[in-house]
Amino acid sequence: MNQHDIRRAVLQAxxxxxxxxxxxxxxxxTVKNHYLNEExxxxxxxxxxxxxxxxxxxxxxxVIDDRLSDKWQFNRIAKINIAILQLALYELQYTETPTAVAxxxxxxxxxxxxxxxxxxxxxxxxSNFSKQ
Length: 132
Prior knowledge:
Elements: H1 3-19, H2 24-35, H3 44-55, H4 57-66, H5 79-94, H6 99-113, H7 116-130
Helix pairs in contact: 1-2, 1-3, 1-5, 3-5, 4-5, 5-6, 5-7, 6-7
Domain NusB/RsmB/TIM44: 12-131
Keywords: RNA-binding, Transcription, Transcription antitermination, Transcription regulation
GO molecular function: RNA binding
């Protein structure tokens, strides 16, 4: 798996957790079954990101909420966009991923899983965060 494939799998594991009652381990198992052969192991970076986002979810959500304009409410954001933002913000705050890479990967995921309006929203929020 390349780095983008890993982030796509992390996004899907995160979205699974946001949309269901599955635990982190169950979400990881679901992703593993989808992406890997039985004898393969999950890439360490994938597991680190999935578990990291899950462990910091409340803090990441607060960062998102703090950057919303008065016109927006957190609960109005599509879950897939929350999942993209959580992943990008986790990478920006807790890994050594360069800022430009984390934002670009988030925008690539938005291209795949969201729409143009949401992509602009994601870009704006992440750009705002990275300038602090």
